[in-house]
Write a structure and sequence with these properties.
By secondary structure, the chain is of the alpha+beta class. The protein has four helices and five strands; from the N terminus they run αββββααβα.
Length: 209
């Protein structure tokens, strides 16, 4: 059975990662304008996220615009949206399931074996959710790097990794580690091998040929 302290640590890490994945999905800084070449000095910074684009002026004014059409979006944005939203939904469900299976809760306390299986199931689903978020952020990041190093991409149209990507990567790793701790099971300790006693013989018993 898993140690209660390990389960609690795993739950805290997974919950922090869950909050981080939500924050990364909402953030607009998935990719930021790169200051390279003639674009080093500019009065405007461009940011693009999964849901909208923003332009930040040097005066501090920020203007954002929500994407008009879903079907006109690039495939990597649509795919990343799906992966991140799926990760959030799975994280929410698995956290609820894991709470019921944790040793520090009273749910299903009369069935310890079933309780351990519920915690194991929640941990496995958390690992899957973390992998989905990791896949989404890595896919988006690989497209940014590919466009950045493409010689045909104009200098003023190049972007680099935004802060949302780093938040997403860190949060996905936290969820995976938390799920691994929740699904960690130690073998039950046996009471020990049964003791064997030599067969007793009666005091007056004798063997004859």
């Amino acid at each position: 059975m898993a140690n209660a302290g390990v389960q609690l640590l795993g739950f805290i890490l997974a919950f922090l990662g869950f909050v981080g994945i939500i924050a990364a999905t909402i953030m607009v800084q998935w990719k930021a304008s790169a200051y390279v070449g003639d674009n080093i000095i500019t009065a405007q910074a461009m940011y693009e996220g999964l849901w909208q684009t923003c332009a930040s002026q040097s005066t501090g004014q920020v203007q954002c615009k929500v994407y008009d059409s879903l079907l006109q979006l690039p495939g990597n944005i649509q795919g990343t949206r799906g992966l991140m939203v799926s990760s959030i939904v799975l994280c929410f469900i698995s956290i609820l399931v894991a709470v019921m299976g944790m040793k520090c809760t009273t749910a299903m306390s009369d069935s310890p074996d079933l309780k351990d299986k519920v915690a194991l199931s929640g941990g496995i689903v958390l690992i899957i959710a973390g992998l989905l978020a990791l896949a989404g952020t890595s896919w988006f990041g690989s497209n940014i790097a590919k466009e950045f190093y493409n010689p045909f991409t104009p200098t003023n149209s190049r972007y680099e990794f935004g802060s949302a990507l780093y938040v997403g990567w860190a949060s996905a790793i936290l969820v995976i580690i938390g799920g691994a701790f929740l699904s960690c099971h130690c073998p039950k300790q046996d009471s020990g091998p049964a003791r064997r006693y030599p067969q007793s013989h009666s005091a007056g018993g004798k063997d004859y040929v």
